[in-house]
Design goal:
- The structure holds 2 protein chains of 2 kinds.
- Chain A is mainly alpha-helical.
- Chain A contains 5 helices and 2 strands, in the order αααααββ.
- Chain A has a two-stranded antiparallel sheet.
- In chain A, strand 1 and strand 2 form a beta hairpin.
- The two termini of chain A are about 20 Å apart.
- Chain B has a domain of about 280 residues: Amidase signature (AS) domain (Amidase signature (AS) enzymes).
- Helix content of chain B is about 35%, strand content about 10%.
- In chain B, strand 6, helix 7 and strand 7 form a beta-alpha-beta unit.
- The chains are: A mainly alpha, B alpha/beta.
- At the A-B interface, helix 1, helix 2, helix 3 and helix 4 of A face helix 8, helix 10, helix 11, helix 12 and helix 13 of B.
Amino acid sequence: MAIPNEAGRKGVASGSRRATENVSEVGITKETVQYVAHLARIELKPEELEKFSGQLQDIINFIDKLKKLDVNNINPTSHILPLENVFREDIARESLPVDKVLMNAPRREGNFFSVPKVIE
Amino acid sequence: MVKSEKLNKLTADELIEKLNNKEITSGQIVSCLSKRIKEIDSKVKAYVRLDFQGQSPFKNNNLALTGTVPSSSLKGLPISIKDNICTEGYNTECCSKILEGFKPPYDATVIRKLKKADATILDLKTNMDEFAFGSSTENSFFGPTHNPWDLECVPGGSSGGSAAAVAADEAIWALGSDTGGSIRQPASFCGVVGLKPTYGRVSRYGLIAFASSLDQIGPITKDVRDCAILMNIISGYDAFDSTSVNVEVPDYTKSLGMDIKGIKIAIPKEYFIEGMDPEVKSALEEAINKLKALGCECSEISLPHTEYAVPVYYIIATAEASSNLARFDGVQYGFRAQSARAGKAQSLIDMYKKTRGEGFGEEAKRRIILGTFALSHGYYDAYYLRALKVRTLIKKDFDAAFKEFDCIITPTSPTPAFKIGEKIEDPLKMYLSDIYTISVNLTGIPGISMPCGFTKKGLPVGMQILTKSFGEEMLFRVAYTYEQNTSWHLEKPKIS
């Protein structure tokens, strides 16, 4: 499942302009949570929406302490090891049999995973 | 002849000797564990999907899960496994509804290694916070585990089931996983030994991913020797994990029993902060005095970026989790929402959203949303990228410390075990209970937690020892010497 394209174009519904200027002013509204939940493909109940927006605001306010630090000229560490591409010889090897791959599928048809209709 | 009803109380090392001498069989150990689990697990709830109806709680009564390698070292000794480590053909659900009924089609590398060493893999899995999201095991779909030392308290988390099972003699030893303290903090709350190995030391293949740059599998055991024995089995390079590191695995048991005179220990002043429980503080001070008496040189240091570790962690860990958990979409495995199944003109996106809305628990949803937010357009630079840069600063603090010192000693947690329900409605408060453990994952270094005292109410206190990457031998050396000069590890909870 991929984050949809509109994420890149539209940005998060509220407060996205402020983000680059002053992070501590980021307001986590119900609309923000609703939109991000949609990006994450999660349907929230109204009471969850209410609860999460308050809690996430607290967490974001706390996280904003990172703004105190000057991080100019600091390289990001996305990974702790000096990562290199790991290659192996291109030799065919045994894979899992189809039945084993499909044995946990909530729905299957023949040798395929079955999902709701995607194309009209 | 040994009284077989007490076998569950022994350490792995003691049992291996008896198995080697043919005094006992692995079947006898399994039946002792089975009896113990039937007796007390309705109170402790260390295991999940437990059925008390049958003779044995184990689904596969002959437990024909063992390997048969002639040079086997464990002789069928049983081990308990956290619910997020894949065991072929046996439910592995991360204690989440969304993985309901999932039976992995393959074994995790650690399970393969254990089978090769002739371990018996118990088919009951241990309880955990859903997808390892939590510090108390309260976020399990199956309900919380109870701390064997005080059943009203949490066992810590997320590997709370593994730690409680070992503490209550419902397991000989166990595997957990540690992304921000999930092995060490429950080990500390339950009075047992837990090790987070160096990132890359143990293969993550078959560990259901939470945050891939932080996750490690590690042992939870009754003492330091067992921890070293288990590390010998599970460590090593694995071509199936591209972040596995090809560094030779030493025999960790050779580090046990060495003297620790002249070892340079650093005590970070930022870890002895306000809000730290005074009984934890005094237990740690006593432990440090003990280490000094054993010949260690202890000095105070500063790790100036300590206060930023929690916010950095909760950005990076949730960002990685939001990406890793995208695979749970009701298509390939696990749960698909019923409403989605029945709907005639149901769209694929509706099916995803309903499945994930119903299948994930509250904390999982909160973290996926936080992580998605931190990665989203307009916030990526301000949150995610900034967190990665501060991670560099935290790493530099530790690199500098290890240029001068052999290890760092801290409390494992600022408090002993807290009450069930105490923090569950305040996620931020819960996150702060990881304050001493998460830097270790952010920097990739190894850390061990071991018992170093008890509070007046009888709750265990844990000491954490840290060292540089691939320096596990140093941890075993210090931990073993301290353990053998104290008796905390011999205390057992009385479960009534």
